[in-house]
Amino acid sequence: MHRQHLLLADSCEQFADACIEVLTSDALATDLAHDAREFVSSRFSRSAVIAKHPGRWRAVGERGVAAVDDVRVSHSANGGAI
Questions:
Q1: Contacts 24+ apart (CB under 8 A), 25-34
Q2: How many angstroms separate the CA atoms of 57 and 14, rounded?
Q3: Averaged over 31-52, what is the pLDDT?
Q4: How many CB atoms are closer than 10 A to CB 67?
Q5: SS3 38
Q6: What average pLDDT does the segment 28-50 reach?
Q7: Cβ-count burial of 71 within 10 angstroms (0-12 exposed, 13-18 middle, 19+ buried)?
Q8: Within 13 Å of residue 49, how many CA atoms lie on the same side as its CB?
Q9: What is the pTM of this model?
């Protein structure tokens, strides 16, 4: 939401104004950073993702650490792309 998690702009001028505003207001920068982190954490933290997709994570748990290692190896072999 505008001014809660981020600042929105529809033009280059509005974007520049928003950048200046956040760079010159410690309170705004602090509030945006806190609220944005909370927003992302509530949706994408490990516990949030597991709660949303318990069956998928149960399968990973049954395979154990090897499943995570498989992803890491695949990720490294593809130059960081999955």
A1: 32/3, 32/4, 32/5, 32/6, 32/7
A2: 43
A3: 87
A4: 13
A5: helix
A6: 88
A7: exposed
A8: 9
A9: 0.55
Q: Which residues pair with 2 in a beta bridge?
A: 6
Q: What is the pLDDT of residues 43-69, one digit of tens each?
A: 888 788 888 877 776 666 665 555 555
In the block, which residue shows the tokens 């990720």?
75
| Helix residue ranges, H only, the chain | 12-24, 26-44, 46-52, 54-63, 65-77
- Residue 19 phi, psi dihedral angles, 5° rounding: -60, -45
**Torsion angles phi and psi, residue 61, rounded to 5:** -60, -35
- In the three-class reduction of DSSP (H, G, I as helix; E, B as strand; rest coil), residue 21 is classed as helix
